[in-house]
Amino acid sequence: MTATKPSPATGDRRQRKARQTRDALATAACDLLLERGAAATTVEAIAERADVTRRTFSRHFAGKEDAALDFVRRDGARINELLRARPADEPPLLAYRRAVRAWLDDREDPAWHVRPRMRRLVALTDTEPDLFAAYQRIRVDAQEESIRIVADRLGTDDARDVRPAAVVDAAAGVLIAALRLWARGDQPDPGATDLAALVERAYDALISEAAAATPAGTEEDREQAP
Asked: Which of 56, 75, 81, 189 has the most Cβ atoms closer than 10 angstroms to its Cβ?
Protein backbone atom coordinates (compact mmCIF):
# COMPACT_ATOMS: atom_id res chain seq x y z
CA MET A 1 0.00 0.00 0.00
CA THR A 2 1.50 3.32 -1.09
CA ALA A 3 1.15 6.57 0.80
CA THR A 4 -0.83 9.30 -0.89
CA LYS A 5 1.26 12.35 -1.66
CA PRO A 6 -0.19 15.66 -0.54
CA SER A 7 -1.47 17.79 -3.38
CA PRO A 8 0.31 21.05 -4.25
CA ALA A 9 -2.70 22.95 -2.88
CA THR A 10 -2.40 21.13 0.45
CA GLY A 11 1.32 21.90 0.60
CA ASP A 12 0.63 25.57 -0.13
CA ARG A 13 -1.96 25.73 2.63
CA ARG A 14 0.48 24.20 5.09
CA GLN A 15 3.16 26.69 4.12
CA ARG A 16 0.75 29.60 4.50
CA LYS A 17 -0.35 28.31 7.89
CA ALA A 18 3.26 27.93 9.03
CA ARG A 19 4.05 31.44 7.79
CA GLN A 20 1.03 32.86 9.60
CA THR A 21 2.04 31.13 12.82
CA ARG A 22 5.61 32.37 12.53
CA ASP A 23 4.41 35.92 11.84
CA ALA A 24 2.05 35.79 14.82
CA LEU A 25 4.90 34.70 17.08
CA ALA A 26 7.23 37.37 15.73
CA THR A 27 4.55 40.03 16.21
CA ALA A 28 3.85 38.86 19.75
CA ALA A 29 7.57 38.87 20.58
CA CYS A 30 7.99 42.41 19.24
CA ASP A 31 4.96 43.67 21.15
CA LEU A 32 5.96 42.09 24.45
CA LEU A 33 9.59 43.21 24.28
CA LEU A 34 8.47 46.78 23.66
CA GLU A 35 5.80 46.61 26.36
CA ARG A 36 7.76 44.82 29.08
CA GLY A 37 11.43 44.84 28.09
CA ALA A 38 13.57 41.80 27.33
CA ALA A 39 14.07 40.68 30.95
CA ALA A 40 10.35 40.52 31.68
CA THR A 41 9.39 38.82 28.41
CA THR A 42 9.23 35.03 28.39
CA VAL A 43 8.80 32.49 25.62
CA GLU A 44 5.68 31.25 27.36
CA ALA A 45 4.17 34.74 27.30
CA ILE A 46 4.96 35.07 23.59
CA ALA A 47 3.34 31.72 22.80
CA GLU A 48 0.28 32.66 24.85
CA ARG A 49 -0.04 36.04 23.11
CA ALA A 50 0.16 34.28 19.72
CA ASP A 51 -2.35 31.64 20.91
CA VAL A 52 -0.03 28.68 20.29
CA THR A 53 1.79 26.21 22.49
CA ARG A 54 5.33 26.51 23.83
CA ARG A 55 6.23 23.52 21.66
CA THR A 56 4.98 25.32 18.56
CA PHE A 57 7.19 28.29 19.43
CA SER A 58 10.23 26.00 19.61
CA ARG A 59 9.51 24.64 16.13
CA HIS A 60 9.95 28.13 14.72
CA PHE A 61 12.47 29.94 16.91
CA ALA A 62 15.43 29.23 19.18
CA GLY A 63 14.53 32.00 21.62
CA LYS A 64 12.58 35.20 22.21
CA GLU A 65 15.27 37.39 20.64
CA ASP A 66 15.22 35.36 17.42
CA ALA A 67 11.44 35.70 17.30
CA ALA A 68 11.47 39.46 17.87
CA LEU A 69 14.12 39.93 15.18
CA ASP A 70 12.58 37.65 12.58
CA PHE A 71 11.96 40.76 10.48
CA VAL A 72 15.73 41.29 10.27
CA ARG A 73 16.19 37.76 8.94
CA ARG A 74 13.41 38.22 6.39
CA ASP A 75 14.75 41.59 5.26
CA GLY A 76 18.24 40.13 4.84
CA ALA A 77 16.87 37.29 2.73
CA ARG A 78 14.87 39.77 0.65
CA ILE A 79 17.92 41.97 -0.01
CA ASN A 80 19.90 38.91 -1.10
CA GLU A 81 17.08 37.82 -3.37
CA LEU A 82 17.07 41.24 -5.01
CA LEU A 83 20.88 41.24 -5.21
CA ARG A 84 20.81 37.95 -7.14
CA ALA A 85 18.36 39.50 -9.60
CA ARG A 86 20.52 42.54 -10.44
CA PRO A 87 22.04 42.68 -13.96
CA ALA A 88 25.21 40.60 -14.22
CA ASP A 89 27.27 43.50 -15.61
CA GLU A 90 26.38 45.85 -12.75
CA PRO A 91 29.31 46.62 -10.40
CA PRO A 92 28.81 44.78 -7.08
CA LEU A 93 28.63 47.86 -4.85
CA LEU A 94 26.08 49.49 -7.15
CA ALA A 95 24.14 46.21 -7.35
CA TYR A 96 23.95 45.98 -3.56
CA ARG A 97 22.90 49.61 -3.26
CA ARG A 98 20.14 49.17 -5.83
CA ALA A 99 18.99 45.93 -4.19
CA VAL A 100 18.63 47.81 -0.89
CA ARG A 101 16.73 50.60 -2.62
CA ALA A 102 14.38 48.12 -4.31
CA TRP A 103 13.77 46.49 -0.91
CA LEU A 104 12.92 49.83 0.69
CA ASP A 105 10.70 50.89 -2.24
CA ASP A 106 8.74 47.62 -2.45
CA ARG A 107 5.11 48.26 -1.53
CA GLU A 108 3.86 44.72 -2.19
CA ASP A 109 6.36 43.14 0.21
CA PRO A 110 7.30 46.14 2.39
CA ALA A 111 10.40 46.22 4.53
CA TRP A 112 9.50 45.72 8.19
CA HIS A 113 11.71 48.60 9.24
CA VAL A 114 9.23 51.15 7.92
CA ARG A 115 6.62 50.16 10.50
CA PRO A 116 6.57 52.64 13.44
CA ARG A 117 7.28 50.11 16.21
CA MET A 118 10.24 48.70 14.30
CA ARG A 119 12.14 51.92 14.88
CA ARG A 120 11.78 51.38 18.61
CA LEU A 121 12.85 47.76 18.32
CA VAL A 122 15.94 48.59 16.26
CA ALA A 123 16.86 51.20 18.89
CA LEU A 124 16.36 48.59 21.62
CA THR A 125 19.06 46.36 20.09
CA ASP A 126 21.64 48.92 21.23
CA THR A 127 20.61 48.66 24.89
CA GLU A 128 19.65 44.98 25.33
CA PRO A 129 22.77 42.73 25.16
CA ASP A 130 20.95 39.51 24.25
CA LEU A 131 18.93 41.28 21.58
CA PHE A 132 22.10 42.87 20.21
CA ALA A 133 23.84 39.47 20.07
CA ALA A 134 20.90 37.93 18.19
CA TYR A 135 20.85 40.89 15.81
CA GLN A 136 24.54 40.46 15.07
CA ARG A 137 24.17 36.71 14.39
CA ILE A 138 21.31 37.29 11.98
CA ARG A 139 23.13 40.14 10.25
CA VAL A 140 26.33 38.14 9.82
CA ASP A 141 24.43 35.19 8.32
CA ALA A 142 22.79 37.51 5.76
CA GLN A 143 26.12 39.14 4.89
CA GLU A 144 27.84 35.78 4.42
CA GLU A 145 25.19 34.92 1.85
CA SER A 146 25.67 38.33 0.20
CA ILE A 147 29.41 37.64 -0.04
CA ARG A 148 28.74 34.35 -1.83
CA ILE A 149 26.40 36.12 -4.25
CA VAL A 150 28.96 38.83 -5.02
CA ALA A 151 31.70 36.23 -5.45
CA ASP A 152 29.53 34.43 -8.02
CA ARG A 153 28.91 37.72 -9.82
CA LEU A 154 32.66 38.36 -9.98
CA GLY A 155 33.44 34.77 -10.91
CA THR A 156 35.85 34.45 -8.01
CA ASP A 157 36.49 32.52 -4.81
CA ASP A 158 35.64 34.55 -1.72
CA ALA A 159 38.05 32.40 0.32
CA ARG A 160 40.98 33.82 -1.70
CA ASP A 161 39.68 37.08 -3.15
CA VAL A 162 39.05 39.90 -0.67
CA ARG A 163 36.78 41.87 -3.01
CA PRO A 164 33.44 40.17 -2.25
CA ALA A 165 33.82 40.58 1.52
CA ALA A 166 35.16 44.14 1.17
CA VAL A 167 32.21 45.18 -1.01
CA VAL A 168 29.55 43.54 1.15
CA ASP A 169 30.98 44.65 4.48
CA ALA A 170 31.22 48.24 3.22
CA ALA A 171 27.75 48.23 1.64
CA ALA A 172 26.07 46.51 4.59
CA GLY A 173 27.94 48.79 7.00
CA VAL A 174 26.44 51.81 5.26
CA LEU A 175 22.95 50.34 5.68
CA ILE A 176 23.56 49.57 9.35
CA ALA A 177 24.86 53.10 9.99
CA ALA A 178 21.77 54.59 8.35
CA LEU A 179 19.46 52.30 10.31
CA ARG A 180 21.05 53.22 13.64
CA LEU A 181 20.77 56.94 12.92
CA TRP A 182 17.17 56.50 11.76
CA ALA A 183 16.28 54.44 14.85
CA ARG A 184 17.30 57.20 17.23
CA GLY A 185 14.31 59.19 16.04
CA ASP A 186 15.36 62.43 17.71
CA GLN A 187 17.71 63.78 15.08
CA PRO A 188 17.14 67.44 14.13
CA ASP A 189 17.85 66.61 10.48
CA PRO A 190 14.44 65.79 8.90
CA GLY A 191 16.17 63.41 6.47
CA ALA A 192 16.67 61.00 9.36
CA THR A 193 12.91 60.38 9.44
CA ASP A 194 12.98 58.96 5.91
CA LEU A 195 15.00 55.75 5.94
CA ALA A 196 15.23 55.41 2.15
CA ALA A 197 16.55 58.97 1.76
CA LEU A 198 18.96 58.48 4.66
CA VAL A 199 20.32 55.27 3.13
CA GLU A 200 20.91 57.05 -0.20
CA ARG A 201 22.77 59.83 1.59
CA ALA A 202 24.86 57.28 3.44
CA TYR A 203 25.86 55.51 0.22
CA ASP A 204 26.72 58.86 -1.38
CA ALA A 205 28.93 59.61 1.63
CA LEU A 206 30.72 56.26 1.30
CA ILE A 207 31.41 56.80 -2.40
CA SER A 208 32.62 60.36 -1.81
CA GLU A 209 34.95 59.32 1.02
CA ALA A 210 36.26 56.35 -0.97
CA ALA A 211 37.06 58.61 -3.92
CA ALA A 212 38.87 61.05 -1.67
CA ALA A 213 40.91 58.22 -0.13
CA THR A 214 42.29 56.92 -3.44
CA PRO A 215 46.00 57.66 -4.06
CA ALA A 216 45.16 60.10 -6.86
CA GLY A 217 42.48 61.75 -4.75
CA THR A 218 44.60 63.60 -2.16
CA GLU A 219 46.96 66.53 -2.57
CA GLU A 220 49.60 64.80 -0.43
CA ASP A 221 49.59 61.73 -2.68
CA ARG A 222 49.80 63.87 -5.83
CA GLU A 223 52.82 65.68 -4.40
CA GLN A 224 54.52 62.34 -3.66
CA ALA A 225 53.74 60.86 -7.07
CA PRO A 226 56.79 60.43 -9.33
From this structure: 75
